Amino acid sequence: DGGITQSPKYLFRKEGQNVTLSCEQNLNHDAMYWYRQDPGQGLRLIYYSQIVNDFQKGDIAEGYSVSREKKESFPLTVTSAQKNPTAFYLCASSATKQETQYFGPGTRLLVL
Amino acid sequence: DAKTTQPTSMDCAEGRAANLPCNHSTISGNEYVYWYRQIHSQGPQYIIHGLKNNETNEMASLIITEDRKSSTLILPHATLRDTAVYYCIVSHDFGTNAGKSTFGDGTTLTVKP
What we know:
The structure holds 2 protein chains of 2 kinds. By secondary structure, chain A is mainly β. Chain A contains no helices and 11 strands. In chain A, the strands form 2 sheets. In chain A, strands 2, 4, 5, 6, 9, 10 and 11 form a 7-stranded mixed sheet that branches. In chain A, strands 1-3-8-7 form a 4-stranded antiparallel sheet, with no helix packed on it. The N and C termini of chain A lie far apart (35 Å). Chain B is mainly beta. Helices cover 0% and strands 44% of the residues of chain B. Chain B contains no helices and 9 strands. A 5-stranded mixed sheet of chain B has the order 1-9-8-3-4, with no helix packed on it. A 4-stranded antiparallel sheet of chain B has the order 2-7-6-5, with no helix packed on it. Classes of the chains: A mainly beta, B mainly beta. The interface between A and B is medium-sized, with 31 and 25 residues.
């Protein structure tokens, strides 16, 4: 089956710890995105990547980092600099950045 | 990218058509109208999109006014499983939405038995 997978479904972070959220797609899409969603609110763009080895900051990139070493993978690291990381994180991809986005199931990050 | 305005919430009776409006009065000529929905604690699901003409697929119909300043998503026979938050987005380039809240708060549609 083609699609976008995110793991884990739930992730717990201790204070001062970095954690990495996985996003994989087998749709052969060039563009990939990370969004953050807080309860009752819409999605906010963290980072996006148009092609391998390239990525751009969104509005809320502070405290986050990404890499795009492979076309199918776009992991997001939530660093200790992100002071309020508890949220629902969504990964998406599209054939190009002008085309329809498709979303993964999301990862819920909780701080202990 | 243009901003959109949607009602906060709507109810619909099961089996009836659900008509969800969206205003996008500042839409540019190259911007598409997209609709997504998000069921609680899941990723948004793509529904339909269009530029100028009305569109229909197996999930829904999209009616865009001639001046493109508003649109309506129609779910022809709503079921309880259609209860979700529906997002209307106008965009020509998701990459340039960086810095903007592309997906606003949407419309919470509740389908009632």
